[in-house]
Write a structure and sequence with these properties.
The complex is a heterodimer of chains A (109) and B (114). By secondary structure, chain A is an all-beta fold. Chain A is built from no helices and eleven strands. In chain A, strands 2, 5, 6, 9, 10 and 11 form a six-stranded mixed sheet that branches. Chain B is mainly beta and 114 residues long. Chain B is 0% helix and 57% strand. Chain B has no helices and eleven strands. In chain B, strand 7 and strand 8 form a beta hairpin. Chain B is globular. Classes of the chains: A mainly beta (109), B mainly beta (114). The interface between A and B is medium-sized, with 20 and 23 residues.
């Protein structure tokens, strides 16, 4: 069965400091991994997906199959990064997303 | 702009009442989903539909039913609401196709069952 674990419910960092939001997954096949973000008073929206290998708003995430992780990183946090972040998994041939419990990031000015 | 809308945005009801939450989209997507969000539990899938004739149960479908009235409309019903169904409910859509995995979310409906 698939499972997505985000061990930190809350994470606070100072502006300009590096930030890493952890995500570990459990899945027997080759999953697709995503990070979704929900800013205050806004909808949940896709931030990035591992197959795109892109950097969005300075964030990157690398899929590490050996460690079954997909941690989200940014070298210099900004105040506007404060939001709720969800890691999500889609299994091979599946159409549904399984979400982690989310991490609320607060960037302190 | 193409959008996903949900009505009502907030609802307070009593135990035992039947409640319907509605979702409409102008994105032209075939696939629609209903999730609930509880503090500390993330989003859990209730039901999903890949087209008008296709309805599938998600992780937590007990106590819920859905209706896909048209490509653009997907309703969630609580036949007899109970307090532990108090949650934030999200509708989402996605286009069909193997490479189309992004889901687009509505603003959410906050439901309180007293």
């Amino acid at each position: 069965a698939q499972r997505v674990t985000q061990p930190e419910k809350l994470l606070s960092v100072f502006k300009g400091a590096p930030v890493e939001l952890k995500c570990n997954y459990s899945y027997s096949g080759s999953p697709e991994l995503f990070w979704y973000v929900q800013y205050s008073r806004q909808r949940l929206q896709l931030l990035l997906r591992h197959i795109s290998r892109e950097s969005i708003k300075g964030f990157t995430a690398d899929l590490n199959k050996g460690e079954t992780s997909f941690h989200l990183k940014k070298p210099f946090a900004q105040e506007e990064d404060s939001a709720m972040y969800y890691c999500a998994l889609r299994g091979t041939g599946a159409n549904n997303l399984f979400f982690g419990t989310g991490t609320r990031l607060t960037v302190i000015p | 702009d193409a959008d996903v809308t949900q009505t009502p945005r907030n609802r307070i009801t009593k135990t035992g009442k039947r409640i319907m939450l509605e979702c409409s989209q102008t994105k032209g997507h075939d696939r629609m989903y209903w999730y609930r969000q509880d503090p500390g539990l993330g989003l859990q899938l209730i039901y999903y539909s890949f087209d008008v004739k296709d309805i599938n149960k998600g992780e937590i479908s007990d106590g819920y039913s859905v209706s896909r009235q048209a490509q653009a409309k997907f309703s969630l019903s609580l036949e007899s609401a109970i307090p532990n169904q108090t949650a934030l409910y999200f509708c989402a859509t996605s286009p069909s196709g193997t490479g189309s995995s992004e889901q687009f979310f509505g603003p959410g409906t906050r439901l309180t069952v007293l």
